[in-house]
Amino acid sequence: MNPFVEPITVSHYMVVGAIMFVAGAVCMATKRNALGVLMGIELVLNGANVNFIAFGSEYLRPAADGMGLDGQLVALFVIVLAAAEAAVALAITLNFYNNHSTVDVDRADELKG
Amino acid sequence: MDPINWSSVFFWLFSTVACVFAVGVVLSNNIVRMAFYLILSLGATAGLFFLAGADFVGAMQLMIYVGGTLVLLIFGVMLTAKGPFITMKTSAGEWLLAAVVGGSLLAVLIAAATSVGAWQQPHERPNTAQVTATPLGMALLGARVDKLEESDATQRRGMSGYLLPFEIVSVHLLVVLIGSAYLARPKRRVSGPSETPAPTVSAPDR
Amino acid sequence: MAEYLRQYLTPEWLAYVVAALVHAFLLVNLLAVSALVFIWLERKVSGRIQDRLGPTRIGGKFGWLQTLADAIKLVTKEDLMPADADRMLFLLAPYAGFVASYLGFLALPFADGWVAVRLNVAVFFIAAVLGLEVFGVILAGYGSGSKWSLFGAMREAAQVVSYEVPLGMCIVIPVLIAGTMDLVTIGQMQEGWFTQWFVLHDPFTFIAFWVYFTCATASVNRAPFDLAEAESELVAGFHTEYSGFRWSVFFLSEYGSMFAVSGLAAILFFGGWNGPLPVTHWLGLADSTNPFLHYLGNFLGMLNFVAKCIFGVTFMMWVRWTLPRLRIDQVMTTCLKYCTPISAAMFLGAILWTYFIPGGLIVPNNDGVVREGQMIVGSYPPADEAAQSDADAPPASVARAGVEGN
Lengths: 113, 206, 406
Fold this sequence. Notes:
The structure holds three protein chains of three kinds. Helix content of chain A is about 65%, strand content about 0%. Chain A has three helices and no strands. The mean pLDDT of chain A is about 80.
């Protein structure tokens, strides 16, 4: 079982996607820095993208069962929306920093009863 | 000895880099290093996309995703370059909880990924290189050139195009651009706990 | 080449590895040698512009070997690291920048078909990769743990991120005319007389080229936009704390990306490997079936291409030693108030021009041939009857030929 000889399948890609997704989720849960949370979100979206690309690829699956171009198109939309989300989140973070002089998300508790 | 499958070799290379640095993002405490690891991880993912034949998405990933992380990095330096903010420690209990939850999630996902037999069947690679940019562009305009051989006439004429989502995303981006510029505009500062000079405020351009 | 080596090397994978290493070695050497020549050239050009001689001693009359002497001096220098530095980032930063500028050459064709990887999104790839070079600068600025470096890096970051917008818009204009992002195909479309070059395609591309060159100069961080170094204000900007070999790696990547943007300009606007006159066609080299003659034709094309790149780099040097450095606010004004609106207007203009005068003005460029990776958009929507009655009806088959041609 030489891994360099075996061909790559969709499952390989899905495992990579799963690892990135979980890393992102853990990152979102544990980081106290708002920018760290943002990076977690980027990782999560990226892990999802890996799956879309894998299912859409003609190199990994027969074209008849695959998502074909749809997989790539969804990945494109995810990338674009991730960029938009990052822009808004950064603007909010900046605002928060201007008001509180910190980017610690645990300090954003002014609405707590 | 069987011939080496070069796409497998590169897959293992890129996937190792992507996964190791994704974990690195979680384990690191320094925000700038986290951004650096994230860049490497996303860049390696772009390599995976190229390997899967999605050239355009790979280049897009390099340009927008990695470029967007650049802005994250800049903000990381800008907002946290001062000593106490640069590392924010997470308590051990949170780590434990996150590790348990994350580990079980990972186990479920990997079990799901390896459970379907059809996903594990290796597939003969087509010899022709794929041209992805033009069909993608046409699909965004509502015309599916990859479906010309479809038996269903409605599909063949491009009824499964993406013109409407494309328009929605365009308007969405415009709204986001204006909104984030409005949110991040320079204004009167409420004095915080420490006397920090007002950071240079500029709207991220993406 | 790998096929050839396979006959001699017993484990098959070794042949591929050796072939890959040789190719990589050739590309790295291209960067290193071109940097060697360009640094010497820069000294000579700046000397002449400032009415002095430049290097004259080492290596004969013109000081040919000045750069080599410099390189030896740099390599033997002590490699210092500040106490406050972030060790890992400080050590990695120069190579991060270098890798980015080296990756651009992966998709840059030097002659018809002489390209490491023929991507059908080559233009986009190069633009994306060149934008990544700024990472090296930011990491260096942060990792040095020095105020000057950080200031330089932040300036560079703001500048590069802003200039990517007009740069991208100018790159899109030739892509729009060509109908493909494959650089090899774009080069092939400009075959023939110099009137076929995209820079002369219409007035909008002509202006777009100048905007492109301005933005490219800014995005590779050359004077008058070299705010990141600004030695009169920031000591030496982002590489203040670097010395010896790592410092020279920064220079290597700077000259590498200058070469890359000039090459991109040469292919997108100046016909790539096609000379101003179709000499290789007159001699029958380009279309020859004889492999040696074809190779010779491609070699002449490569010389053409490299000459255009060197011209571009020399032009940047000329600008550098002629114009004073801008202030940071002036740099931003140039980008946001001038370059971006101009390039947007040129983009719209080029769209209208190709819509109303599709063939180009001087010589009709559109010979009706659908090349690899290209697609004639107007022919797409398959007429209902044609699509339903016969899958091989002309409109649909033209579109398919374009898509599947590669």
